Amino acid sequence: MKIIDAHAHLIPNELGVSIIKRYMVEANLAKVVLVPGGMINPWAMANFLRGTESLQLQEAPNEFLLDFCRGNEQFLPFFQVNPAMHDRSDVEAALERGAVGLKLNPLVDKVRFEDPELENIFELAHERELPVYTHILLNKSASIESLETLVKRYRRIAFIIGHMGYGTSDPMAISLAAKYDNVYLETSVGAYLTIKAAVEKAGAGKLIFGSEAPAHHPKAEWEKIELLKISDDKKELIASRNILRLLNME
Known about the structure:
By secondary structure, this protein is of the alpha/beta class.
């Protein structure tokens, strides 16, 4: 079965590259969707959340990511948008260099979904039918409720909710995916029972496999999908067909 890891971080150095390439072989992946990495120490996430560890990088290493993916069809880059640094022209330039989607990171970049600076970028994503991956926070400006406003406004954007929503078990995220045809759930770090519930309530057509590499290994994350004991057709949707459809690469 073709498996695509739809969410892995590329740490911007030789070690980061070697880890992604090794994981790809060990998990028998066909392709990897990469987002910038290295901003938070993946071995000390809890300390960052506690406020006892600072960012390792102040800006997402988009340039390193785009350069690495150029000309290599196995790796598909998502450009991380920070409205404090990027505008529509920056996104257009990234698309010309091979970016296939956008990522918002409210945790690191303090992105607010209602930020006026994001409007032109969302309009571009809507015009181009680009997928937008985002984290969910308890903060009102980056919450499920705030995301729903965007979902209803930009129906041609596929919004991919990272890590199955807030925490590892988020029934509100599942409900949103079941309610709207342009909302999807990415499985990395998600609890097994949450992934199982999402298949039952939203359908396998709404789940996208991801790993959160390098902190999580794609082979271990895929095992949660195998344990669901669902049909091969449903597994293929989660493994690759859903993300390929969103990227117009079927």
